[in-house]
Every structure is written in C-alpha cells, then in structure tokens.
Amino acid sequence: AVAAVAALATSRMRDFAPRFRRAWLLAGLAFSCYPLGAGFEVAASVAGRAPGPDWSDAVTLAFYPLFFAGLTSLSSAPRTRYESARLGLDVGMIVLTGASFLWHGVIAPILTTPGTSDLETLVRIAQPVGNLGLLFASSSALLHRPNPSSRRPLGLLAISGLLLFVSDLLFGPAPLRQGGVEANPWPEVAASGAPLLWLLAAQWQRFQGSEPAPAQRRHEPHYAGVGMLPSLALAAGFAMLVHVAAPHWSLELGVEIATLFLITAVVIVRQVLAVRETEHLLAERAVREARFRSMVQHSSDVIAIVDRRGTLRFVSPSVSRVFRWQPDALVGTNLFALLHPDDVASARAFLRTMAQQPGETDAFTCRLRDGDGAWRHVESACTSLIEDPTVEGLVLNTRDVSDRARLEAELTRRAFNDPLTGLANRSRFHAMTEQALRRNTRTGVTALLYLDLDNFKTVNDTLGHQHGDHLLVEVAARLLNATRGCDTVSRLGGDEFAVLLEDLRDRDDVTVVADRIAGAMARPFHLGPAEFLVGASIGIAFEHDGLSADDLLRDADVAMYVAKRQGKGRWAVFQPEMHRQLRDTVQLEADLRGAVERDEFLLLFQPVVNLVTRRVVGGEALLRWRHPTRGLLLPEAFIGVARDAGLLEPIGRSVLLRATDQLARWRREHPEMAGISVAVNIGGRHFQSQWFVQEVAAALAASRIPPERLVLEITEDDIMRDTTATLERLTALKALGLRVAIDDFGTGYSSLAYLQRFPVDILKIDKSFIDQMTFEDHGQALARMIVALGQTLGMRTVAEGVEQPAHLGMLRDMDCQYAQGYLFAPPLPPEAFARYALAGLNDDLFDPPSFAGVTAGPALRVVHGAAA
Ligand code: C2E
Ligand code: MG
Ligand code: MG
C-alpha cells in the first residue's frame, strides 16, 4: 500500500511528461492490487465464505496487465527494425526458457491436479501466464537501451518483476502450496521484496525528476551485465533439460545432450565472434566516416547535391565558411534562387544537359549570392550521379573564384584602359572611333577633340611625377565632367587626351563642348601646396565620308598643334590647309636652326623721339631674318617657332651683343650720337634663364658702352610671371646700371602693387591705346591714365606705334615725353638710323599748319624710302 501511494504521488508530479505520469499511474494502480486483493480475501474469510475463485482473485490478477503496461510505458521504443528484432530474439530466449520452467514447475501440476473446476484451473493458470508477461516486460526493459530519464527506477521495477517470477516459479502458486504460508514462508518473503523495490523506484523517480540525471546524460547503452541474461537463460534451459531427462538417464541420452550443449556453445562463440567482427567493422567505418566528414567540412570547396530541378538535397558544412550560408537553411531550397538572375538560364540548361549524361563531369561558372548578400564568382564542377542509387543527383563541387574573376577583369581593364586615370586607352579609343565611323545609323555630327595640356611639363619638372600624375587624374575627372556620359573620353598617353562626340545636333554644339572643356582646364589645379594654371589646347576634327579613325585623330592632332601655336588655352577646328601650315612650320623650324649657324639675322633700329626736344633719343633694335628663299621675315613669322624650338635664347644672346656692338660703333663713328640709347627686346624665356644677368654684363663689358645707354624691353606678361624671381633679377640688372622698360604696357595683366616695387624706368604704351585716341570719344582717357601712372611711379612713358600727326598734339597734352612710330620712321638699317638721328626731326611734323587731313609728312616719305 505504501509503494502504491508513493507511485501515485510520483504520477502526480506536475513537471513530468504526460507519458511518464501515465506510466507511474499504471504502476501505482498495479501495486494497489495487492492490498486490495488481500483485503477482499480477509473480508471473504471473515464472512466465512468457502475458499475458491472469487473477486479477490480478479483484483489480484489485475496486477499483471497493469504492471506490464506501466513497465512498457516507462521503457523507450526501439529505434530501428534491427534493434527491435534483436531485442525480440533476446527476450524470446528468456521468455521461452521461463515458459518451459513454468510449464514443468507450475502449469503442468495445476492441469494434472484432479478435482478442480474449470474456473479454478483458469484462475490458477492466469497467475503464471501473468508472470510470463512480467518476465517479458522486465527482461525487455533491462535488455533494451533504457530511457535516460527513468534509468534507475525502471531497473528496480524490472528486477522486482524478475523477483516475482522467480518466487512464483520456485515455490508454485500460493493456492497449490501444501501446508500454507506457515509451512513454507519463503515465497512470501521473496515476493515481499518486490514492493520494497517499488517503493524505492517511485521515490527515486520523484527525487530525480523526469530529466535525466546529469551523470547519465552520456549515452549509456545498457544496464551493466544484462547482456548475460539470454546466455543465462540458455544455460538454465539446459539445466532444465538435464533435470527432465534425469529419470530416463542413459549413456546415449547423455552423449546426445552433451553434443547439443557443445553445438550450442559453438554457436554462441560463433555469434560472439560475429558480433566482435561487426563491432570492428563499425569502428573502422566510423573512423573512415569521421575522416571523410572532416574532409568535406574543411574543404575549401563546397559540396552539394541537387536534383534535376535544382533543389538542394545536401550541402556540406563548409558552405558556412565559404559562402556564409547555414547548410540547414539551404537544404530543400532551390539552387537557382541563389544565382544571379543573368546566370539562371545558362545554369539551368547546364544542369539539364548534365542530368542527361550520367557519369559525366563538366564545369560551369556563375555568380552566387552569399549569406551577406554579396555576389561571388564561383566555379562549379558537376558530376552527374543521377543513376547512382546512393546519390541520385548531381554532385556540385563549388569554389569561390571571385579573386580570379577580379584579376581577370582587372587585366582586361588594363588592356583597354589607362591604369592611371581609368579612361579608355589609345587602342580602345581607336577601336571605338573606328566603330563609330562605321556605324551607318549615325544621325547628327561626329567629332573628335584632341587635347594637349599646355603646362604639364612645368608641373612634372617642378613638382615631381607624383603631382604630375595627380594632375592627370584631375584632368580626367574634369573632362568627364565637361562631357556627356555617352561621349568617349580617352587618355592617349602623356598629357594628351581625346574625346569622341557623337550624334550632336550641329557643329556649334561641338564648339560649345570645346569651350566648356577649355574653361574647365583653365581653372587652377590644386597640387600639393600650390595652385597651378595648366590650361589645354584643343584641336577639333569633324568626321566626313571616307575618313578612317587614324585620319580623324591625325586631323584633330594637327588642329591642336595649330591651336597651341595660336596661343595656349584655345581650340581650333581642323582645316585642310593646316596640314600645309604645319609642314611649313616644321620646315621653318629646320631653317631656323640653320639660320642661327649661318647668321642670317639682322637688326633694324626704329627711332624713339623726344616729343619735347624733338630729337631722336634712341633706337629699338628689331629683329629680321633674311630667309634664303622667302626674303626678309618679320619677327611674328618666326619668333613663335623659335620659342617652341628653344632657339630664342641663342638668338636673343646674339641680338644683345649685336645691338650693344652697334651702339658702340655709332658712338665711335658719330660722337654726336653719344646721347642715343639702344633698346633690346628680351623674350620671357631668355629673361628667366639662369645666365641672363651674366650675359648682359658681358655684352656691356664687351661693347664698353655706358650701361645707362642700354634699355631692356620686357613685355608686361613676362615681367609679371614669377614676381619674386623677377624682382631679384631686375635688382641684379639694375645693379649693372642699365634701364628697364615694360613693353606693350596695357595688353596684359599688371599688378600695380608689383609695378611699384619693380625697379622699372620706362613704360611703353601699347599701340592699341594710341590707335584708340582718335577713334573713340573717350579714347584718350586710358592713355592719359597710363601716362599719369608712369609719372606717379617715376617712370618715363613712350607711346608706341604713332602713325598720325593728330596723335602728337594729344600726347604732348598728356605730358607723354617720348614716342616711336611710322609717323617718324619705320625700323631702319643702322646707317639710315644714324643719318636720321643726325639729321634731326622735321619741325613741320610737330607744328603743322593744321593736323586735320595730314597723314604723313614729307620727311616720313623720305625715310620710308631709306628703309626700303
Ligand atoms: P615691339 O617690341 O612692340 O616692337 C614694336 C613693333 O611695332 C615692331 O614690329 C615695329 O615694327 C612695329 N611698329 C612700330 N611703329 C609702328 C607703327 O606706327 N605702326 C605699326 N603698325 N607698327 C609699328 P616688329 O619689328 O615686327 O616686331 C614685332 C615684335 O617682335 C616686337 O614688338 C617684339 O615684341 C618682337 N621682337 C622684335 N625683335 C625682337 C628681338 O630681337 N627679340 C625678341 N625677343 N623679340 C623681338
Ligand atoms: Mg619692343
Ligand atoms: Mg611694343
């Protein structure tokens, strides 16, 4: 009764699983059958009822099915068919042995007892049959892998079942026992051990709870030693055989039994060996599997199995490392859902083909989305194992080849792109131009812009290549900004770029783009600590029938060259005659080199007149080239070419020497000319050259003229260039004692602040201001201001290009002291200059009867003749 209460209490534990609670409820009900049956029996004997089958037997017998059900509910079910078959055989051996014992020991005696009613016999047999059930349930509970959450309690209950079986077997069913309990109490003593075990089991389960005890969490397959139970049963079966055979003993029977025993022993040994062998094979397979699993897991490839439709049936764990997917999340999904939409069709076709070719292996590449959502380039080797029953699918061995794909893309990009700026390179640009020219669906205008930076070399030389590269990158960015997305922008090499414009409305649109690009290049570039003005010259060539890409490029290149020669930062449209011009220029350059060696240059001197004293005060040395075939050339025809060819310095040096030498000669030959100065034009490059000051000093020393008789004319633009260095240089020159004039003043940009600091003596007012004086209402205002500025700064002013007598009065009114121009004299050869200077000026020039209508005085005509 106590055990029953304990089991029922266990069944009421709230945190137990329902199956568990049901098992303990059944056990509790089973245990309570004993006290209830005993109670009925006592009640019957008190009532004086005759012994025989009654309700008490029914209640007592109910113990067996209830206990059986409780035990099986607590056990766990076999997992595989093999397991249940093996369990069935083992339990079968025990139960059969038990059955044979029960037959001989209990059932046969009951059946052979005379004078018992059928009901009585049935009740008596029911008990051993129930015991057989107990044996079955207990031995299967023990032999089977126990349920971890009821391991100990179940073991105790099973032992109690065996105890009940053995006690009934050894001592026969209670009603058969002769002499009652008093004569033989041992069955009762043995049987009362069972309720103690029940109590213990119920309590144990209650304290342990339905969770497996921590120590038993590890997988413990069996109760220790129970593996022996079937063998014990077999031995017991033999013992029974010997026992049954004993009354009929003979040598023959003994030999027969011994042989049977030996054969059985051999079979058992044989079975043990088979088990050992299986275990060995299993262990070997486990090692192999573990090795294989680790290979699959640690492989840098991902192994997957897909069916014909692309459903993933297996994905190796390495997928989490390689592609950041969880393998479980992928199994069952479709492979195509992971692929780039552009690759799905080809991948589908590939897998379909592979599915039709069992045993074949082939590879394909595609883009696959990884767990982070990024696209990866993958290469997949596919083996078709569609007919292999262990696989029944396509095995994909996939690896990430993104790095390789990136490298390939990079190499391709390099082959067609400029690595520095990322723009199309020359070969790609050429191909694209060729393609554009061949397209016959063209509408509108196609043009090629050839662009060359104006001051790239200066940046590269002064700031270094790193900043040069930086500049090129910035230029590329500005070019892209100034063009449309559909225009092709290319770096042809060095500082040369090209733009291909297609489908523009008309030619004006092209020049708009050219203007925009020129504007973008004119903005200062920030390079390192400084800002640089770089600028670009642009040549434009329009496509027309029959032109190849090479032709178009060459035409635009020629136009660019012309634009550069016209002054930097401009654009020019290609004209067919430009080719000729270019050829001429090249020829001229060649001639010019020879001219320096052959000394084909000569100097003319244009008189500078003092408007107050009406005397010639000096002459400006002006360069002429006596060209062998083209005659006498003016500076504008060759100075630019000379500068580009780097010949201006040697020419300038010779001019300096020649002019000072000429002055010295005049002074020797005509002492009256002692007051005459000579002005020499100095090119910017020459002025900035390292040796310039020394050269001037040498020229002065060689000619031995008084230094103040030498005037150096430097244009406004040149003198304002590198102001710090200029100031230094000017100071050095001034230290020699000569004078400095700013030529063409007013045509460029002058910082008046610098002008004040520069030791400059003379301002030469550009011809354009003089021309304006007679044409415009307020035309004199600017010239007047320049003269006033000169006076403020303590400089003399010389009016250049005076052609009209009307200018003279105006200049005098402004207090401009000096002038030069065709009105007085053109540039003259040295002898003519000397004559002119010595003759003095025609007073009529200054005091004409009326300025109106006078274009040139008679003196002028005379000297013109001299110049000619
Ligand atoms: P520039 O220094 O301003 O010289 C004055 C130019 O104006 C000379 O042209 C002269 O012939 C011209 N001219 C003078 N009076 C008149 C006039 O009344 N009307 C007109 N229309 N023109 C007049 P040229 O000799 O052709 O020289 C042109 C430029 O060439 C010079 O301008 C000067 O900048 C440069 N140049 C001349 N000789 C040399 C030289 O030896 N070295 C350097 N570096 N440059 C020189
Ligand atoms: Mg000059
Ligand atoms: Mg001038």
Keywords summarizing the entry:
single chain; 868 residues; alpha/beta; disordered C terminus; binds magnesium ion
Give the SSE layout.
Blueprint: H1 2-11, H2 18-46, H3 55-61, H4 63-74, H5 81-112, H6 118-143, H7 151-171, H8 180-183, H9 186-208, H10 229-245, H11 251-298, E1 302-306, E2 312-315, H12 318-322, H13 327-330, H14 341-355, E3 361-369, E4 375-385, E5 393-400, H15 402-416, H16 426-438, E6 445-453, H17 456-463, H18 465-482, E7 488-493, E8 496-504, H19 507-522, E9 525-527, E10 530-532, E11 536-542, H20 549-565, E12 571-573, H21 577-598, E13 601-610, E14 615-627, E15 631-633, H22 635-644, H23 648-669, E16 677-682, H24 684-688, H25 692-703, E17 710-715, H26 716-719, H27 723-736, E18 739-745, H28 752-757, E19 762-765, H29 767-775, H30 779-792, E20 796-799, H31 805-813, E21 818-819, H32 830-839, H33 843-846, H34 858-867
Parallel strand pairs: 11-12, 14-16, 16-17, 17-18, 18-19, 19-20, 20-21
Antiparallel strand pairs: 1-2, 1-5, 3-4, 4-5, 6-8, 6-11, 7-8, 9-10, 13-14, 13-21, 14-15
Helix pairs in contact: 1-2, 1-9, 2-3, 2-4, 4-6, 5-6, 5-10, 6-7, 7-9, 10-11, 17-18, 18-19, 20-21, 23-25, 29-30
Bound molecules: ligand C2E and magnesium ion (MG) (2 copies).
What would a concise description of this structure say?
With about 850 residues, the protein is of the alpha/beta class. It is built from 34 helices and 21 strands.
Report on the architecture of this protein.
- By secondary structure, the protein is an alpha/beta fold.
- Strand 14 (615-627) and strand 15 form a beta hairpin.
- The protein is rod-shaped and about 185 Å long.
- The termini are far apart.
- It binds ligand C2E and magnesium ion (2 copies).
- One magnesium ion binds at residues 620, 681, 713, 743.
